[in-house]
Design a protein that fits this description.
Length: 285
Amino acid sequence: MSEKHGFTATKRQYKYRFPGLKNVKEDEWAYIEDEIRSRDALGKLFLLVFTANLFYRAVSAVGLLASELLDQGSLNSPRAGAASSNNLVERRKVLSDLLGSPAQSFAELATQFQGFIPERREGDLSEKLERIVDTSSPATSALPALFALTAFFASNNSLDKTKMDEFLRWIINNQYLAFLQRFIQLQIPTVHAFTKYVFESAIRIKSIPVLSEPLDRGVDFGSVAEDIDSIGDHDFTRRVLAKMDSKYFKNDVGGRLFHRFVSAGLFDLAKFLLDKGVSVEARDP
C-alpha cells in the first residue's frame, strides 16, 4: 500500500479493517507483511494470506478441542480408527478430492497444496499433510488439520458442491460428526464461512443429524432457511422456523417460504409463518 499509493497503514488500522485479525501476534504480523510483499511481486492476491494465517490458528485451536474430547472418551466409537479410515489410499483420496485432481503421491499433493497456501516456514504445510496421511496414528488425530484445510478451501470459494457433499458424507460414514460439530464452534472468520458450506451440504444430502446439534445450540439458520424444507422433514422445518430471527419473516424470505408451503399443501407450516408475522399478501416469487 505504501509503495503503490503512498499510504502506510498502522497495525491498528489493519486490525480495524480486518476485525477477525485483532488478536494476531507480532510474529504473525511480520509473517503477513513478508507474504504480502512476496505474493504482490508474483501478482497474487494478498487476501489469501490473511485467510491462510487464520488457517494455521484454526489447526492449533481445533487440535486442543480434539485432544480434550479424546481424553474424555466422548468420541470413542467402534468405528473410530477402523482399518478403512486408516487406509493411506483413502486418506490421500480425501486430500486429492479437495484439490479436484486424481489421487497422487504425497509429494505431488504437497506441491499442489503449497501452490494454494503460503507457508509460515519451509516444510510447515508438509508436516500438517503428513499428519493427515500418517496411518500409524488413529484417523481422528488427522481431523484437525483436515478440517482446517477444507475450511480454507471453502472460505476461498474453491470447494464446489460435489466436493463438499462427498467430504461431509465421509465424515458421517466414519462417525466423525462430533469432531466436526466442535470445529464449527470456533470463533474464526474462516470457520464461519465454512459453516455455511456445511449447512448447505447437509441440506442437499438431507442429513438432519448434521443440522440438529447447531440448531439446539441456538444457531440461526436464516441464511439457509429457503432450502430447509427441501429435506422433506416437516417437523424439523418447523423447528428451524421456530428459532429463526423474526427479521426473516418480514422480508422476501418469509414471503417465498409462505407461497412455497401453500403450493405444496403444507398449510400448517404456512399458518405457522402467518403467526410469525409473514403477511398474507407477501409477494409471490
